[in-house]
Amino acid sequence: MAKSHILGFPRIGADRELKKAIESYWKGDITKAELETVGKTLRAKHWQQQIDAGLDFITVGDFAWYDQVLALSATLGVIPARHQEETITLDTLFNMARGSSPCCGQQAAACEMTKWFDTNYHYLVPELNEDQQFTLSYNQLIEEIQEAKTLGFPIKATLLGPVSYLSLSKTNSDFDKLALLPQLVTTYKQLLANIAAEGIEWLQIEEPILVQDLTNDWQQAFTTSYAALAQGTNKLLLTSYFGALGDNAELAFSLPVDGFHIDLSRAPKQLETALTLLPANAILSAGIVNGRNIWRNDLATSVSSLQQAKAQLGDRLWVASSCSLQHSPVDLDNETKLDSELKSWLAYATQKLTEISSINAVLNGVNNETLTQQLRESTAVVSSRATSTRIHNTAVKARVAAITDQDAQRHSEFTQRIASQQQELNLPLFPTTTIGSFPQTSDIRQTRNQFKQNVISQDQYITKMQAEIKDVVTRQEALGLDVLVHGEPERNDMVEYFGELLDGFAFSKNGWVQSYGTRCVKPPIIFGDISRPAPMTVAWSQYAQAQTNKLMKGMLTGPVTILCWSFTRDDISREEQTNQIALAIRDEVVDLEQAGIKVIQIDEPALREGLPLRSCEQQAYLDWSTKAFRISASGVRDNTQIHTHMCYCEFNEIMPSIAALDADVITIETSRSNMELLSAFTDFSYPNDIGPGVYDIHSPNVPSVEWMTQLITNASEYIDVARLWVNPDCGLKTRGWPETEAALKNMVTAAHNLRVTFSHKA
Predict the structure, then answer these.
(1) Residue 533: which domain range?
(2) For residue range 10-58, what is the model confidence (pLDDT) as tens digits?
(3) Which amino acids are annotated as binding site, given as ranges?
(4) Active site residues
(5) From the annotation, which residues make up the binding site for L-methionine?
(6) Domain at 482, CATH number
(7) Which residues pair with 113 in a beta bridge?
(8) How confident is the model at residue 760 (pLDDT cuts 50, 70, 90)?
């Protein structure tokens, strides 16, 4: 019989239990033992759900307290010197993720964080040095296997493979990190032997870089690594996802493993290649259920697409999710406010377990009334969604069709615009600002919740939010910031907020997914054509501007980020969806300018995230995505200054496209990399103004004046001081007021000191 399994399950819990417990532990409200009990309870619950749904294996190793790559780094003993302790503990991982408190007058910076391939999940980048030693140092995976064995579950373990781990790491000097591979593989062999010693037959070993372009050296790395790993007794399921193996297919299927997993959601056409190249007696795991979106699976189509494979392979065909379900919300049954039609179109992680099991059962020849009803309902739902009148808007389609190149161009070149803006805005050297959000206090969250629950009226809600805005403005004036923001108290999330106000979007109550660590988001659901029925931010920004004589910055989320951080439609192209959003944002930008807002920030942190994993597909994406940003920003006069913000990504590969955005000012995350990322902007000769982040807002540390002064001084070695802004790495909504005000006070002081220093130099 064919088998069914998933690559991983969301670890946060249906009610974000893990997030809440970890944050309580950080605050000192619960003990480590109490935190560990929460994790153990969640794991047992999720394993039982997989069995109850009819899957043949549970997946062990997908749980992480913060991030699975970080957990693997601890397992392998890859701990930066600044975080090394006698024994690696859970607190070691948290210190690496958040930055540790000052010790002996020094701060231990958090590890660099970047996007996991083209998802909105972030991982902690392993830091390797030339004399790196790998040694098994943290036993989380083995302990969880033992835990699942005690509960009597049929286990398939999962582990990120050595070649992908090495590829995803960074080095602190210029050396070939492939030189570390032999020792790394030796350590992996020890880990695999420990897994085998627990009686685990199958190990899902994930090598996601196989769907990317690989040089000959990296292709060879797979050959040598798996020749060594195959000497063990483990049955290895070589796992790829997020795209097609493409020109790496022959390499992948030549490796001496016992099975292969491929993503048939993102790359359905690779099934034919897989069936041709699959070695005799090897397993093929078909990732037929989309692990990254929330649309209900067309069961009949999925069964049909796998029938040839089933006929050819028999019980050597496994049915699976395309990737880990951690990118999906946990349980659709928790959604009590979605309308019944829309809800019928959706499937969250829990429902996807049943979809996988049902597809597998049909392929295995099971025929009962329950399965027949599931197939019948699936077919009816797919038809209902395709023909629903709520999806299509002819006016929106006509407006997108009428877009011209002129719509994506500012009136003048940057050199002319910046001169006009300098005269209009009259900003000092090293102007200071923030990225947009300020602490979301419990009072703010309570007010929003009371309004949503109809406990308070709209007028009461507006009055309370205005009081929060006025307080934020007063605090910023006292700190001496140059360009202020209204603090965004009315926003639950930088994308969800806009999704709630745009036609064509739906939003969930409990559709949480993990972005990084304890940061969870509820992506809006794009189900139809998108338009803006009314202004979304203008009244808040206008009120904030009325409270001060200083410049007030309007805050918007860009079209590419709204797309990437939403659950998108699968019936029209991503480009068309983005252009619809761009026109809606353009209307908002024009209205902000007319309301007297002279500085407008359009955040695009997801631009790099959306980049296709294959180079041959990247330029087309960059062309339409940067054009969409320019459409959103180009309806204003020269003297209105457009900012954008990007964070936690690698800029080097897309510098021409970042320049093509033609934002007057770009603010970026650079403090975790000690301004190293600015070298990309220098090598490329980036033409516009830049605000490199001078402190890490994801760390509770309050950076000193000296720390930030040095970072800005470092930045001045890359960028002309006349083009430098001073700002944090990202928004401040997750921080508390005491640390926020202390950090911003130091930031402003550092900027003032540097104005004096560089004025004297001039």
Answers:
(1) 417-761
(2) 999 999 999 999 999 999 999 999 999 999 999 999 999 999 999 999 9
(3) 16-19, 115, 120, 435-437, 488, 519-520, 565, 603, 609, 645, 647, 669, 730
(4) 698
(5) 435-437, 488, 603
(6) 3.20.20.210
(7) 124
(8) low
